[in-house]
Design brief:
Number of helices: 5
Number of strands: 16
Largest sheet: 9 strands, mixed
Distance between the termini: 31 Å
CATH architecture of the largest domain: 2-Layer Sandwich
Structural class: alpha+beta
Number of domains: 2
Oligomer: single chain
Helix content: 10-25%
CATH superfamily of the largest domain: Pseudouridine synthase
Length: 263
């Protein structure tokens, strides 16, 4: 696995996570993860941070598996690409963790979403809970179940565009052919999540009826632009303090497939 290092000092590492790679194992898959790469290249991080306990089924028996999360302070979804921060020692882990908890870390994402967004700017302040219909999904607003956690997302429209039918592809067998025949509208966004809930951007965009393009979980029925082979969500930059108190801003280049659509 080839991973690009975007920033490194004696305590902190920032990498450019590729789309399609999980940050750490879920206890079921045997695919290589970012955690595997970290342990191979930075073996001293083995006991840095907190491990995670997963309950999985094994031959009809539920067993608990402890998943290694070496130095992983925050996560990106498997299909999300971009900047990921890692701590190389326990002191750095606790230092970065406190910045995330105090919401002083500044995160910037870019995304392509379905539809023509009405407002140029907006703030989504909707708690997120579990979906009652699908254990994999989360939900904002009415109908969510379980613990409702505060979630705030700011967004800004960078560009709106329309694609011809020849530039679209169906994303599921159930998708109506008429939407492909008529073409489709899209919006390119800059997004700033103020909290760090699971699937937060994806859930909040779904709440606005403008789900992220090519998101098989939250946007299975809208057409996907040709040339986009992954979910169109990218962690463009992150700003934090290192242990010297210096403000560090790390940036990941916007994926080429995004740029081809928006230029």
């Amino acid at each position: 696995m080839k991973i690009k290092v975007l920033y490194e000092d004696s305590n902190i590492l920032a990498i450019d996570k590729p789309s399609g790679v999980s940050v750490h194992s879920d206890g079921r898959s045997r695919e290589k993860t970012i955690a595997d790469w970290v342990l191979k290249n930075y073996p001293k991080t083995k006991n840095v941070g907190e491990n995670e306990i997963y309950q999985v089924d094994d031959k009809n028996k539920k067993i608990k598996i402890e998943i290694k999360r070496p130095g992983i302070v925050h996560r990106l979804d498997k299909e999300t690409s971009g900047v990921l921060l890692l701590a190389k020692n326990e002191k750095a882990y606790q230092f970065l963790k406190s910045q995330f908890q105090e919401r002083v870390v500044k995160k910037t994402y870019v995304a392509i979403v379905s539809g023509d967004m009405k407002n140029d700017r907006g703030v989504i302040n909707k708690p997120i809970g579990r979906s009652p219909k699908d254990f994999r999904r989360y939900l904002a607003g009415r109908g969510a179940r379980g613990e409702m956690r505060d979630a705030v997302t700011q967004y800004r429209v960078l560009k709106r565009f329309t694609l011809d039918p020849s530039d679209l592809k169906a994303t599921s067998p159930s998708q109506g052919r008429e939407s492909i025949k008529e073409g489709a509208k899209f919006t390119y966004l800059e997004i700033h999540p103020k909290t760090g809930r699971t699937h937060q951007i994806r859930v909040h965009m779904k709440y606005l009826n403008h789900p992220v393009v090519c998101d098989s979980l939250y946007n299975p029925d809208n057409p996907c632009p040709k040339g986009i082979t992954r979910m169109a969500l990218h962690a463009k930059s992150i700003e934090f303090k290192n242990l010297k108190g210096e403000i560090i801003r790390v940036e990941s280049s916007v994926p080429k497939e995004f740029i081809k659509l928006i230029i």
